[in-house]
Amino acid sequence: MHDIKWIRENPEAFDAAMSMRNADITAARLIDIDAERRRLMTEHQELLARRKTISGDIGKAKKNGENADDLMAEMGGLKDRIKAAEDGQAALNEQLDLLLMSFPNILDASVPKGADEDENVEMRRWGTPAEFAFSPAEHFDLGEKLGMMDFATAAKLSGSRFVILRGQLARLERALAQFMIDLHVNEHGYEETTTPMLVKDDAMFGTGQLPKFAEDSFKTTNDMWLIPTSEVTLTNQVAGDIIDVASLPLRYTALTQCFRSEAGSAGRDTRGMIRQHQFSKVEMVSIVDPDQSDAELERKTKCAEEVLERLGLPYRTILLCSGDTGFSAMKTYDIEVWLPGQGRYREISSCSNTGEFQARRMNARCRAQGDKKTRFVHTLNGSGLAVGRCLIAVMENYQQADGSIKVPEALLPYMGGLAEISATK
RNA sequence: GGAGAGAUGGCAGAGUGGUUGAAUGCACCGGUCUUGAAAACCGGCGUGCCUUUACGGGUACCCAGGGUUCGAAUCCCUGUCUCUCCGCCA
């Protein structure tokens, strides 16, 4: 959501920012609508002021038993004009809001220019991909051979892009999630949260899934949405609030299921559990003082990287270029984990600073003690991590020649000491 | 699912059609007093938008959206949420 006042004052900057995003809008168009909107608004207010005066006079006249017919007559004429001004104003407001809601966030100055993912910039790498004495398998081959990853039965229930995990593999997924939550809560200062997974329209507008991306999510028959990420619920907690700056930052983490229609990705990642309609993810959301969001993005990214380091999974961190940065974000780091079976790095986390973009939509503000002015908070979100993809990464990186999988040391406490997952177990 | 009650400022709580953005109390902020603090007293104390160089002025908001009326926190309708009782239920 953009600030029309700012656009009015910085039209060239807005146009430059939008062209960076390939967004088809100009400040001039918005300013025209805004000018007419404000003209009507002023007119409307003047009419209301007149109405207030007259009705007060009528009240007085009646009290004194005087005749108020001429005042009543003037009021009759006012009514229609007020209604007209009101309707015109409402229409323009709606038109302007919808436009302001429909265009992507302005990018941070540090975001590199680029057309697509090929122009993302690698920031750093951690770990060295292991050498295998055999040809490493992909996760679905490993899982099916173990008899613990069952796509066929899931398809019977729900169609494609679903999976059933069994036995120790199901437990491994649970262990991963627990491990992540514990790390973020005990060492990274996030508050553990469980949230609804069904939300109303407002929440989806607040974080930017609506109005543009309705087709990416699932909607229920009673007009609710299955959350595509708990960023939606965690972030929208502060919608409409005015928060004391002293209580910031707020850091929340949650383990939830995420639901995505994957409309438009037909044919991509059709095998295995890389891309599912439903997956579990540990999310990290921060609500921060507007001056702190740059630092918080670095911190959050590090929190996500820490998960991989503790698990001994090689990764690289990438700064997304202008063409690859998502709608709501002003800056995004993707973390990609090494998958030996695929022989390449795949996205496992995405950490974004949305600045005040979401806060403006949600009307979430903060104020310093004794200060009269409010400011919009900044909101950030990051996966920490996608549990399903992390399971894949563990399987592929810790696979052994016989198809068994070693359990990473960090997960041993969560696996009841089980050190290896194999078909005989 | 059935029956009922309710939603007012940070909190509590008045207000059932006329100058009410809204009494009162508490909390909070500033001041007087005090060696300091407390108490007492005085003053202040919501959010947004429009307008103005500024001081200021205007307007809207008493859950949300419609309606009645010259005029709505107050009357009517719809929705949302909360609470109580019954039924059902993990």
From TrEMBL:
Taxonomic classification: Bacteria, Pseudomonadati, Pseudomonadota, Alphaproteobacteria, Rhodospirillales
Main location: cytoplasm
Domain of life from the UniProt record: Bacteria
Protein function: Catalyzes the attachment of serine to tRNA(Ser). Is also able to aminoacylate tRNA(Sec) with serine, to form the misacylated tRNA L-seryl-tRNA(Sec), which will be further converted into selenocysteinyl-tRNA(Sec).
Name of this chain's protein: Serine--tRNA ligase
UniProt KW Metal-binding keyword: no
Alphabetized UniProt keyword annotations: Aminoacyl-tRNA synthetase, ATP-binding, Cytoplasm, Ligase, Nucleotide-binding, Protein biosynthesis
Enzymatic reactions: tRNA(Sec) + L-serine + ATP = L-seryl-tRNA(Sec) + AMP + diphosphate + H(+); tRNA(Ser) + L-serine + ATP = L-seryl-tRNA(Ser) + AMP + diphosphate + H(+)
EC numbers, comma separated: 6.1.1.11
InterPro entries documented for this protein: aa-tRNA-synt_IIb (IPR002314), aa-tRNA-synth_II (IPR006195), aa-tRNA-synth_II/BPL/LPL (IPR045864), Ser-tRNA-ligase_type_1 (IPR002317), Ser-tRNA-synth_1_N (IPR015866), SerRS_1_N_sf (IPR042103), SerRS_core (IPR033729), tRNA-bd_arm (IPR010978)
Quaternary structure, from the entry: Homodimer. The tRNA molecule binds across the dimer.
One BP annotation, GO: selenocysteine biosynthetic process
Homology family: Belongs to the class-II aminoacyl-tRNA synthetase family. Type-1 seryl-tRNA synthetase subfamily.
Recorded metabolic or biological pathway in which this protein acts: Aminoacyl-tRNA biosynthesis; selenocysteinyl-tRNA(Sec) biosynthesis; L-seryl-tRNA(Sec) from L-serine and tRNA(Sec): step 1/1
Binding annotation for ATP: 260-262, 347-350
Gene Ontology cellular component list: cytoplasm
Pfam families recorded: Seryl_tRNA_N, tRNA-synt_2b
NCBIfam families: serS
UniProt KW Iron-sulfur keyword: no
Aminoacyl-transfer RNA synthetases class-II family profile domain residues: 171-408
Binding site for L-serine: 229-231, 260, 283, 381, 383
Recorded domain comment: Consists of two distinct domains, a catalytic core and a N-terminal extension that is involved in tRNA binding.
CDD domains: SerRS_core
Encoding gene per record: serS
Subcellular localization(s) per the UniProt record: Cytoplasm
Any one Gene Ontology molecular-function term assigned to this protein's record: serine-tRNA ligase activity
SUPFAM superfamilies linked: Class II aaRS and biotin synthetases (SSF55681), tRNA-binding arm (SSF46589)
